[in-house]
Amino acid sequence: MKAAIIGASGYTGADLIRILDSHPDIEISAITSRKYLGKSVWKAHPSMRNLKLRFTEYTKDVDADVIFLALPHTASMEKVPELLETGVKVIDLSADFRLKDVKIWEKTYGAKHTAPNLIEKAVYGLPELHREEIKKADFVSGTGCEATAGILALAPLQGKADKVIIDVKVGGSAAGSTGNAGTHYPARAGNVRPYAPVKHRHQEEIKQETGFEVSMTAHAVDLVRGILATCHIPNFSEDVSKLYRDFYKDSPFIRITPKDPKFLPNPKYVVGSNYCDIGVVTDEEHKRTVVFSAIDNLVKGASGQAIQCMNLMFGLKEETGLEALPLYPA
Amino acid sequence: MKAAIIGASGYTGADLIRILDSHPDIEISAITSRKYLGKSVWKAHPSMRNLKLRFTEYTKDVDADVIFLALPHTASMEKVPELLETGVKVIDLSADFRLKDVKIWEKTYGAKHTAPNLIEKAVYGLPELHREEIKKADFVSGTGCEATAGILALAPLQGKADKVIIDVKVGGSAAGSTGNAGTHYPARAGNVRPYAPVKHRHQEEIKQETGFEVSMTAHAVDLVRGILATCHIPNFSEDVSKLYRDFYKDSPFIRITPKDPKFLPNPKYVVGSNYCDIGVVTDEEHKRTVVFSAIDNLVKGASGQAIQCMNLMFGLKEETGLEALPLYPA
Amino acid sequence: MKAAIIGASGYTGADLIRILDSHPDIEISAITSRKYLGKSVWKAHPSMRNLKLRFTEYTKDVDADVIFLALPHTASMEKVPELLETGVKVIDLSADFRLKDVKIWEKTYGAKHTAPNLIEKAVYGLPELHREEIKKADFVSGTGCEATAGILALAPLQGKADKVIIDVKVGGSAAGSTGNAGTHYPARAGNVRPYAPVKHRHQEEIKQETGFEVSMTAHAVDLVRGILATCHIPNFSEDVSKLYRDFYKDSPFIRITPKDPKFLPNPKYVVGSNYCDIGVVTDEEHKRTVVFSAIDNLVKGASGQAIQCMNLMFGLKEETGLEALPLYPA
Amino acid sequence: MKAAIIGASGYTGADLIRILDSHPDIEISAITSRKYLGKSVWKAHPSMRNLKLRFTEYTKDVDADVIFLALPHTASMEKVPELLETGVKVIDLSADFRLKDVKIWEKTYGAKHTAPNLIEKAVYGLPELHREEIKKADFVSGTGCEATAGILALAPLQGKADKVIIDVKVGGSAAGSTGNAGTHYPARAGNVRPYAPVKHRHQEEIKQETGFEVSMTAHAVDLVRGILATCHIPNFSEDVSKLYRDFYKDSPFIRITPKDPKFLPNPKYVVGSNYCDIGVVTDEEHKRTVVFSAIDNLVKGASGQAIQCMNLMFGLKEETGLEALPLYPA
Fold it and tell me: For D297, what's the count of Cα atoms within 13 Å in the CB-facing half-sphere?
């Protein structure tokens, strides 16, 4: 089966290549990049020195069974319509088709949506919540990385609680592969920096998928890969361990941790893997429940999850090519 | 003026030595350590190679005008009574005399208090709240590092709000200078680890000083020095910038930051200094206020603050010896 | 095919489990640990939460086709004789059987060798130099991690140069999973610490395998995984790029890098993989050649390489189970 | 006494401000920056929030007794002539006046020197070697940071040995405050990257000051501040401990360490201070001497050293304003 990656010079592109390269059912048929056009893949990704792949130019007629779009927001919606018309299956990792309400999307991303008719067609690419729809889909939208952590932490509580404060800690690779003043190493290392104190874009995604009223604060921490979402749920302190285990019993990438702080979710325990660790602790004294979830933002938060969707779309076993254990310690 | 440090081989001891060594009015007359008895200071603190100081044995009759106790919890309360009897001024950096209610202390620290009669005498050593009492005190209790960050973030709101969720991110030096399995470098580096999901000991200190009902979750992050406390106050979203500026207008170590995420509190901006940066952002949509506070846990969270108290106790200018700007970038 | 790991609670044990778990031809039949006896694997390795494996007790009659020993130095040589007697194939990751001259071994490791008769039988487990012997071997000795980096950097120059100064930078996981005062996170983070200025144990291994007179200095750097060996060869400045490419043309895990500093070996480009990147730069002005080699100390420097040997010993393709690209960026 | 800093928005500018702000004899009369013209100092240096200083425009008639130039290479030599004409004392932190041989300078820096007549006038600003000249100087050139580490490590051996391989490990702040693709945090963190395998510019500076034939290789490591220079001296293995102690007996910022690896130079032990730690280990077996030197690149490698020179130029005690102990652990 052939897969092409459009916009493969960034970090999600790199992780798509990395994982697909070992996927038993996939041959990478094309990777595109304007910046690296004609160059070997290792010019963009020095870790891939010996890989025989070159960046080519984008064309809608790329020879592929499935196309991953790893383009910046608003660039994807320009390409999706013409790709879908060719009959190929498309997985879009941008934010362009994540929100079902186009008005909320336009407000959140500050742009006019140019393919609103395709929004409904796009299945939200979170297998743990939309497995059956994904199996039947031709077009899947990737999920936001902080959103993924938040939604997976909250989904089992839908109907039991409805308000949450999410305090999220995020590694530097979530900012993408292009630098700015804030990502200059001496300025960025050693940070615990609240880069999105309020109004985080992913609030809407979490609300859409869980019904929770979400108030999020995001911090940049000194980590390359990884997200920890600490979800504080006020006025709620039931023991929900069993509920979580049941909810995710058929989801191979969700691991429910013990309450012992030694084993609670920590991005370090999932790095390099498609796992999402979830731990729940109740604070009876203050009637609060804290749900922690940890993911590798580039794997379960982006490329790994997209490949998990691809497996479902093509009738493969959900875990195919994604079974690597986390790299620990790293 | 002579200062002695009891238990000077740990990290708060080291920072007391570091700051007092440059203090214009202080001569360090003794540093004690059982472990390093008779040895040069640099055997414990390799950064102090050329300093002419040796660890000596503890005696209550140490030649000093002020004694800093940098001992583990419960060890301090054994020494404080006999020291105070000699007439020396005492600043205790342990947790032994921080809580005014001995029952809460005993429950929180799981031990019997052996000097309950001295609790009332101990002034809580946070100059921003207890400046006048500290000036008259013979005995000051240091404050908890996470507690310091939390209290300074919340104090101006007393009477306006009363419930808070504090999500705190803490550097590794807060765990002290003695290692355990969890502090082994390969296991600890790259962590965002919720080590105290609920029931953090400092909740009581913050409650005592601010009246807030405090629900805290603490995370170990990949940082040696520094604390960021993110205080989520639900059901409250007034603009309190002016309130904060007014409240701290006579407090030289409090810096109120702009709301712009570029300048919000970040431990990186205070490392090595006695500053506490505080920033307030309101989330009108969700009727939430977020207060961020950043400190260097070993300086404003421990040794610097103790010296700030000492200055007040001896009629010196509050900033003496503490005016160093943060080390940036570091 | 069944594999057992003796002493599986440390970092090399963890990486053996991690890689073998995805190996298409291997079933892990037993993992042993005295410390974690009877416990689930994730108690020692929190990244392996869902893996269904428990630590059992060591017995020489373990049901396995191949046994990996991941024991401390001197503990291995106690077990190897009885294991080999059972007819099982053995790969020992300790230093016990790396040196062919027992006198040098005893001097280097400060101990009496208890199985000197087996030294000759042990094939030095570096496939790039001993591929054919390994294919026929029943007993293979793992290689030192710094030694691996050094030997692979120097082997092509054998006969052309004979003296080298190796300045090696090593990540914290090379020190093992047991902590000490020097590995306490606040003390270890931010280090560039010369922990072995002279007399590094691996000098002898490199000398044995390359003939070079090796003078090594090793530094602990702020990295969990990874080794960079900078090999300074004085009085030699021929262009040897082609020589290197030819020497390693049949070695799938060796990647020769361009001279451009942008792509020279960097542990970051090999983390999580079995690759060894090698780059050569000549300094005509000072008649010096610098050879850089980068590996992941736990993979190509230990567990990955042991599995590469296993593949050869059992007639499998050398790369089987080891084809994962590096995790980048991480 | 008044000091002005020209080009104060970078990292050496920041450290000049930081140190001069606490200097008992100095008032900062002006800081200039084109980029931040008219803005408060904290807009460039967020750690300096409360400092009452604004960036102004450069003018040669700035009101100052001493002017520090913290400009990029080649920009300094445009300004120095007109500044010196006003009679003010000048300390230039750029590379423009470090090399005495203008031909070597032009070859090394790839530019035409526009003020060659002033080269001879510039005293090389390393007090440990040029203390008496600096006392009498009106114009001092700052030193390269890697050069400082190298020269201080080698100077005592002048006449005893003459060839050295310097393997240097450098923190990210040495690359300056302006980012590029290589300093983007996810790409730069976790690096041990040989960015200057041969032909390092500072070789010439070290040669000029010590007479050694210097062959240098420089690596970027995961550290914000700090340099470790490992100087491998082949064919030399005398015990020179006493020699070093004698050579530096009147140099308050040089600390000779024990040979015990526990205490050998480590940038971590000097961060935030003007100290240079030096340790010497001999490798009798291979007739090699290894000299380690560690500095904070922004302090002893740049701004601190410039202020040390200023103290000497104005008859102040050499240590004034520079007595802060290192920040440890940090």
Answer: 25
Question: B183 and B94, same structural domain?
Answer: no
pLDDT computed for residue A102 by the predictor: 98
Q: Tens digit of pLDDT for each residue in D49-88?
A: 999 999 999 999 999 999 999 999 999 999 999 999 999 9
Report the relative pairing of strands C89-92 and C139-141 from DSSP bridges. parallel
Residues of A in contact with D180 (CB under 8 A): 179
Closest CA to C37 of C60, C7, C11: C7
Does D180 contact A179 at a Cβ distance shorter than 8 Å? yes
CB of B304 within 8 A of CB of A218? Answer: no
Catalytic annotation present for B309: no
Residue in A303, A163, A136 with CA at minimum distance from that of residue A233: A163
CB contacts, 8 Å: B189 with chain C: 172, 185, 189, 222, 224
> A232 falls in which pLDDT band (50, 70, 90)?
very high
Distance CA A108, CA A202 (A): 9
Is residue C85 domain-resident?
Answer: yes
Of D175, D185, D222, the CB nearest to A183: D185
Are B97 and B206 found together in one domain?
no
pTM for this prediction = 0.98
pLDDT at D15 (0 to 100):
98
Residue A309, domain member (yes or no): no
Q: Is-contact B105 B113, C-beta < 8 A? A: yes
Amino acid type, C210:
T
* Tokens read off for D328: 């440890």
Contact indicator for B143, B327 with CB cutoff of 8 Å: no
* ipTM score of complex: 0.97
What are A12's two structure tokens? Answer: 């999600």
Q: What is the pLDDT of residues C259-301, one digit of tens each?
A: 999 999 999 999 999 999 999 999 999 999 999 999 999 999 9
Query: What pLDDT is recorded for position A317?
Result: 98
Residue C325 lies in a domain: no
At residue D185, the pLDDT reads: 98
Q: Which of C212, C236, C223 is nearest to D165 (CA)?
A: C236
What is the pLDDT at residue B227?
A: 98
Domain region containing D257: 145-295
Is D239 touching C (CB cutoff 8 A)? no
Q: pLDDT for C227-239, tens place per residue? A: 999 999 999 999 9
Residues C82-104 have a mean pLDDT of 98
Asked if residue D151 and residue D104 are part of one domain, the reply reads no
What confidence tens digit (pLDDT) does each residue in B250-299 have?
A: 999 999 999 999 999 999 999 999 999 999 999 999 999 999 999 999 99
Domain boundary among B86, B121, B156: B121
Question: Strand, coil or helix: what is A218?
Answer: strand
Counting the structural domains of chain B, the total is 2
- Do B170 and B253 sit in the same domain of this protein? yes
How far apart are alpha carbons D235 and D213 in whole angstroms?
14
One DSSP character per residue, B83-133 reads: HHHTT-EEEE-SSTTT-S-HHHHHHHHTS--S-GGGTTTPEE--HHHHHHH
Same domain, D18 and D74: yes
What lies within 8 Å, CB to CB, of D52 at 6+ separation is none
Measured in angstroms, the CA of C294 and the nearest CA of chain D are apart by: 9
Is residue A317, in this structure, part of any structural domain at all? no
Q: Of A172, A177, A181, which is closest to D189 when you measure between CB atoms? A: A172
Comparing C-alpha atoms, which of A109, A193, A178, A103 is closest to residue A144?
A: A109
Query: With an 8 Å Cβ cutoff, are A234 and B230 in contact?
Result: no
Which of the 8 DSSP states describes residue A325? P
Is the Cβ–Cβ distance between D206 and D150 less than 8 Å? yes
Question: Is the Cβ–Cβ distance between B214 and B206 less than 8 Å?
Answer: yes
pLDDT in tens, B15-50: 999 999 999 999 999 999 999 999 999 999 999 999
Using 70 as the pLDDT threshold, list the residues of chain D that sit under it.
Answer: none
CB of B167 less than 8 A from some CB of A: yes
